[in-house]
Amino acid sequence: xxxxxxxxxxxxxxxxxxxxxxxxxxxxxxxxxxxxxxxxxxxxxxxxxxxxxxxxxxxxxxxxxxxxxxxxxxxxxxxxxxxxxxxxxxxxxxxxxxxxxxxxxxxxxxxxxxxxxxxxxxxxxxxxxxxxxxxxxxxxxxxxxxxxxxxxxxxxxxxxxxxxxxxxxxxxxxxxxxxxxxxxxxxxxxxxxxxxxxxxxxxxxxxxxxxxxxxxxxxxxxxxxxxxxxxxxxxxxxxxxxxxxxxxxxxxxxxxxxxxxxxxxxxxxxx
Length: 271
Known about the structure:
The protein has helices spanning 2-27, 36-46, 53-82, 88-97, 100-110, 122-134, 138-141, 157-162, 171-185, 194-198, 203-218, 244-247, 259-270, and strands at 192-193, 222-227, 232-237. By secondary structure, it is mainly α. The protein has two domains: 2-82, no CATH class; 157-270, Orthogonal Bundle (Arc Repressor Mutant, subunit A), CATH 1.10.10.
């Protein structure tokens, strides 16, 4: 019994050695933290007592793990030697031991300041003179850009037809088709985002759809709803046409329809 307990203790030592070596390999620990010489002595003392196949396999596994650690130590030494590695603590100690005069001398020997020589020439003087002669006077450069202010004005249906924003098709027929499209694209009892409905491939078509949407609201086919928290405007269609008086928009909702806004919406959809 005593002999068996001694064997168990030795097996446990080998298992701990295997686990330590595995940790060094898998976690990237310092391979020199493993005392290889001491472990080899333990293996040498245990080997004569092994009788079973399991014990011999355990012994072989231990030797294999130790070999891996030795290889890691070898790789570490090769890397440090080829990269001219110096221990930072060793360097710090050497610097602290140096006198101020010796440290200053080393600094002067290793200091290579960059010097640039600039010299004026006839060519550079001629280029500088031409540059200043071609400059616009300061009073003209600092003038504020004059931007013509465009006054907002009413556009009639006939004017939009002339600008080819609307077609010559009967207006009421076109409006009914537009209302039908709105109801198809909107879930029952729901609403659709304003820009999602009027947005088109071209800016001209987007303006036309916005104009027709305004008539849907004016004639009682739909209503505009504004979500102030989200900063969005929605179009909500009616199943049947409301009376013009009852369906008139209670609050005017200004919506920017510039070309920049259209481009911004198109880019957001493509993203």
